[in-house]
């Protein structure tokens, strides 16, 4: 996988160059059919990555948030979210990220969470320890390890936005929020990097799409964490409902699932 891993880093480097060019600049914000915002930075960033993949691996499939998916039956699929946290990007907040993953027969092999403005990057590779890159460390990676927190009442919980939960989901989230030590909102994909590095313990979200989650799976799992839907499944198949829970230990994950399922 070393060749694919190096190429994934190159994709992240290229996407960051595009994003930094537009960050905190005047640009038109459009609303997509699902009312989510999109900018030229989102679209151009994905285009650059798609062009690189098509040139390097013309037989690989590509699924991206902005330019769709045309399956060819290839065993290899790149899944891209050029700007995860477009609202943060528009508002000038630096904690949005680019998500890049490579799937082999629908199983994530490589996942990157790249935070271009802060020059931070997490990478997870199947059967290898997740790593964190900080520009201040001059490219030397730091091995990631989740907190291992087992007690819900001692946990730090993050979620991107309380508005992401529909009326039937919100009470389940509220049950967890009422029992943890601390609840914070915002972060988008950044929260999962913080979880992989052991800074926070739990992330609970909903209303996600496949391009929001595929890169997160290798990063969290190979740092020792657990990530699944609210039923405990980690395959995220076509019937996935967009709900996600990630935890810094199997014990904490089980407690969260119990409350999310109201057992």
Query: Going across the major beta sheet, what is the strand order?
Result: 4-3-5-6-7-8-9-10
Integer count of domains: 2
Query: What's the helix-strand series?
Result: HEEHEEEHEEEEEEHEHEHHEEH
Radius of gyration: 17 Å
Q: What structural class do you assign from the helix and strand content? A: alpha+beta
Amino- and carboxy-terminal Cα gap: 41 Å
Helix content: 25-40%
Strand content: 25-35%
Say how many strands there are: 15
What secondary-structure arrangement, pairings included, does this model have?
Layout: H1 2-22, E1 30-31, E2 37-38, H2 40-56, E3 61-64, E4 68-69, E5 76-84, H3 86-91, E6 97-104, E7 107-115, E8 120-125, E9 131-134, E10 142-143, E11 156-159, H4 170-177, E12 182-185, H5 190-196, E13 202-205, H6 210-213, H7 216-221, E14 226-228, E15 244-247, H8 250-260
Parallel strand pairs: 3-5, 11-12, 11-13
Antiparallel strand pairs: 1-2, 3-4, 5-6, 6-7, 7-8, 8-9, 9-10, 13-15, 14-15
Helix pairs in contact: 1-2
């Amino acid at each position: 996988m070393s060749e694919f891993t190096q190429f994934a880093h190159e994709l992240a480097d290229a996407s960051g160059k595009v994003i930094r060019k537009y960050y905190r600049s005047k640009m038109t914000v459009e609303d997509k059919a699902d009312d989510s915002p999109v900018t030229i930075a989102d679209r151009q960033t994905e285009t650059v990555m798609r062009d690189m993949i098509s040139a390097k691996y013309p037989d690989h499939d590509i699924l991206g948030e902005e330019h769709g998916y045309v399956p060819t039956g290839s065993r290899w699929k790149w899944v891209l979210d050029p700007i995860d946290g477009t609202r943060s990007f528009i508002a000038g907040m630096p904690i949005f990220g680019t998500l890049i993953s490579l799937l082999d027969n629908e199983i994530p092999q490589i996942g990157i969470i790249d935070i271009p403005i802060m020059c931070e990057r997490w990478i997870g590779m199947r059967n290898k320890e997740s790593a964190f890159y900080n520009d201040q460390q001059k490219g030397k990676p730091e091995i990631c390890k989740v907190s291992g927190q087992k007690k819900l009442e001692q946990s730090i919980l993050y979620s991107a936005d309380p508005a992401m939960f529909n009326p039937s989901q919100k009470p389940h989230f509220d049950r967890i929020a009422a029992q943890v030590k601390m609840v914070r909102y915002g972060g988008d994909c950044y929260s999962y990097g913080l979880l992989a590095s052991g800074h926070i313990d739990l992330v609970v979200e909903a209303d996600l799409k496949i391009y929001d989650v595929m890169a997160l799976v290798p990063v969290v799992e190979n740092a020792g964490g657990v990530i699944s839907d609210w039923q405990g499944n980690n395959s995220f198949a076509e019937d996935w409902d967009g709900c996600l829970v990630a935890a810094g230990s199997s014990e904490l994950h089980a407690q969260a699932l119990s409350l999310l399922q109201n057992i």
